[in-house]
Amino acid sequence: MKIAYIHSTEKIGTGANFINDLIAAKLREKGVEVNDFYPKFQLTNAPVHFKGINNILFFYSLMEKRDEILRHDIIQGTTYTPLAFLRFSKPVISHFGSTTIGFLRAVPKTNLIEDECGDIFRSLKNDGVIEEVELKTLRPLHDIASIEQYAAEHADFIIATSEIVKNDLVGIGIPAEKIEVIHNAIEDYWFDDKQFIPAKDPALVFLGRMGEDPFTLKLKGIGRLIWLYNQFPEVPKLSVVISQGQKLLQWMRTGIPNHTVAANAIKDTIPSLLKNYAGGIALLTSRYEGFSLSLIEMMSQGLVPISFPVGVAPEIIRDMENGFLVKTIEEAREKIELLLKDSELRLRMAENARETAKQFKSDVMIDKMLTLYNKILQRPEADNKNKG
To answer: In whole angstroms, what is the distance from residue 276 CA to residue 258 CA?
Structure first.
């Protein structure tokens, strides 16, 4: 079995890159030949208003490797990356870890954000952390959403990383029967520490990508996170963040009491950071996630999640058992207060969260992918779309 895996950019340390690397490595362990293909044309660090150009042009450079790619049994890529190969006879899988239409629906204008969080956003602008509270244009994101829809309509199969992503796609007219929900996984090293040793004092913990532009900061719920942090000035806090926004990082270090910021840590060192906070409270404040690797990673280290209903959270979090789902920042604050007061409940839920995370070991994901690949390859040749 030979799989051509098409990427949108060279490795830049995003969740999608880590997942793609994990998938490729684990498939190779199972004897599958996986070859990675990257476009020659890239604007990895382009401003958001140039990304539409990048996402239209990048796949043309892949055509230089057309013959090599078409020698594979299956062509797979993230969202629209296999776009240039949709009209050939080889089966194409489009792997959706999230949808841009989901981003656009989830992120409101600043003046429509909860009052407290909107005030925090305006403070970030007044303090010079961000230049504006809105992107100048959302047109490139709408263009990407249209490209994703076209890719989803014409791909032979779609992998969605959560029911939320599947519902996004069904909502734009993609047939549910060609969508397979296969959850992401986390690397094996997250499960190396077999002991659960809770920290002496419970802390509030955030793990994830912050972004630098106002749209991404709102998407990740930065206003919600800061508001919740500020409600508990005496409680220790840890933010393990990926961000190139130095002004934002400095503001978070100095503007939030009792707060430690670990910025741009090497991925496989993060478990050792988090385990020092075992038994604490994990905050997932995003307005949209397709899956949320950080949720599973924090749970694997014995942190109790308080999460908005994004990504895989509604599928796995059971209130009062392994975490809490919340709809408002006030509700999140109440759950934090409950866990801080009731250490017995918090520690029991922390151990349950660790057990839940074990569902997301890589072997589970890879077995489901192999089942899908075999299903595709066992189809009669006539069933493969004649795209020529």
So the answer is: 16
pLDDT (tens digit per residue) in 125-164: 899 888 888 887 788 889 889 989 999 999 999 999 999 9
Q: Which two tokens stand for residue 72?
A: 């594979």
Per DSSP, the three-state class of 280 is coil
Q: What is the pLDDT of residues 3-45, one digit of tens each?
A: 999 987 665 556 677 888 899 999 999 999 999 988 766 544 4
Mean pLDDT of the chain: 90
Look at residue 246 and tell me if it is in a domain. Answer: yes
With residues binned 3-state (H G I as helix, E B as strand, rest as coil), the percentages for the chain, rounded to 5, are: 50, 15, 35
Q: Classify residue 292: in a domain, yes or no.
A: yes
The structure tokens 């792997």 sit at 95
172 and 193 together in one domain: no
What is d(CA 43, CA 258) in angstroms, rounded to the nearest whole number? 38
Angle value at C-alpha 108, between 102 and 112, nearest 5 degrees: 155
Query: What is the C-alpha separation between 45 and 189, in angstroms, rounded?
Result: 30
Examine residue 23 and state whether it is found in any structural domain, yes or no: yes
Q: Judge whether residue 267 has pLDDT over 80.
A: yes
Same structural domain for residues 288 and 144? no
Other Cβ atoms within 10 Å of 13 Cβ, number? 12
Residue 79 burial (10 A CB sphere; 0-12, 13-18, 19+):
buried
For residue 193, how many other CB atoms are within 10 A of its CB? 17
Structurally, the chain folds into a number of domains equal to 2
